[in-house]
Design a protein that fits this description.
0% helix; 118 residues; 4-stranded antiparallel sheet; globular; 7-stranded mixed sheet
Length: 118
């Protein structure tokens, strides 16, 4: 089992910045992918960004150039630096840990609310 605890959400004005953190604990396997997803009211959960253990990153088109994902493997912590925030970024942000070896398994955090006021 892997436990994920997110922090750093809050209320910010449009154009502002926030930094989310996700601390992972438990049965951490060395090869994994960690990422951020978000879900706005009435919408499906959507991919935001991910980063593999080796450093490969991926971003949703909607956040490219504004959000930066990073991780500290020694601390098993994932970060998401969010700049130039827009009202469309308002959502609950969830941390994801994916064990990529068979059987592939996904773990989720409880979510942290990000609200961007216009």
């Amino acid at each position: 089992q892997v436990q994920l605890v997110e922090s750093g959400g809050g209320l910010v004005q449009a154009g502002g910045s926030l930094r989310l953190s996700c601390a992972a604990s438990g049965s951490i396997v060395s090869i994994n992918v960690m990422g951020w997803y978000r879900q706005a009211p009435g919408n499906k959960r959507e991919f935001v960004a991910s980063m593999a253990t080796g450093g490969t990153t991926g971003y949703a088109d909607s956040v490219k150039g504004r959000f930066t994902i990073s991780r500290d493997n020694a601390k098993n912590t994932l970060y998401l630096q969010m700049n130039s925030l827009k009202s469309d970024d308002t959502a609950v942000y969830y941390c994801n840990f994916r064990k990529v070896s068979w059987p592939t398994t996904d773990y989720w955090g409880q979510g942290t609310q990000v609200t961007v006021s216009s």
